[in-house]
Amino acid sequence: MAAAKISTSTQDVWPRRLKEARLAVGLSQRELGIAAGIDPSVASTRINRYEVGVHKADFQIAVQLARVLNVPAAFLYSENDEIAAVLVALHRAPAVKRKRLISQILEQE
After folding, report:
1. What angle in degrees, to the nearest 10, is found between the helix axes of 43-52 and 10-25?
2. 3-state SS, residue 6
3. Integer Cα distance of 76 and 70 in angstroms
4. Could you report the average pLDDT of every consecutive run of 10 residues in the chain (109 residues)?
5. Are 15 and 50 spatial neighbours (Cβ–Cβ below 8 Å)?
6. Which of 90, 70, 63 is nearest to 20 (CA)?
7. pTM to 2 decimal places
8. What is the pLDDT of residue 17?
9. For residues 13 and 1, what is the distance between their CA atoms, to the nearest angstrom?
10. How far apart are the first and last CA of the chain?
11. H or E element in which residue 42 lies
């Protein structure tokens, strides 16, 4: 089994995850910003600045963006690609399946 890809810089994790999630759902930077409650006149610029790492969003904005992208906020901060994928899968799973998966994972300890 190949080792999970871990980002070499914690500075690039959040911008990369944000862009990855945005592209996966097919939203423009402007559309994402507006849907997350950012003023339409600056929505595109703010999301662009987040994605290139010029500005950092506070946690409240991260939660709003994650909600729109249908990912848990923790996904945006995960430096391990496999764990990030699991976080999204758990987040999107129906409650019964999520509970079962979590139980299975915790039993592996």
Report:
1. 130
2. strand
3. 11
4. 53 94 98 98 98 95 98 97 95 95 85
5. yes
6. 70
7. 0.85
8. 97
9. 23
10. 19
11. none
| Integer-rounded Cα radius of gyration of the chain | 15
Q: Retrieve residue 51's tokens.
A: 């994605």
Cβ proximity of 73 and 62 under 8 Å: yes
Quick one: pLDDT at residue 45?
98
Structure tokens at 81: 């690609």
Report the pLDDT value the prediction gives residue 49, as an integer from 0 to 100: 98
> In whole angstroms, what is the distance from residue 102 CA to residue 23 CA?
28
Fill in the amino acid letter for 39.
D
CB atoms within 10 A of CB 88: 20
Q: Is residue 25 within 8 Å of residue 69, measured between CB atoms?
A: yes
**Tokens linked to 57:** 């969003």
pLDDT at 7: 47
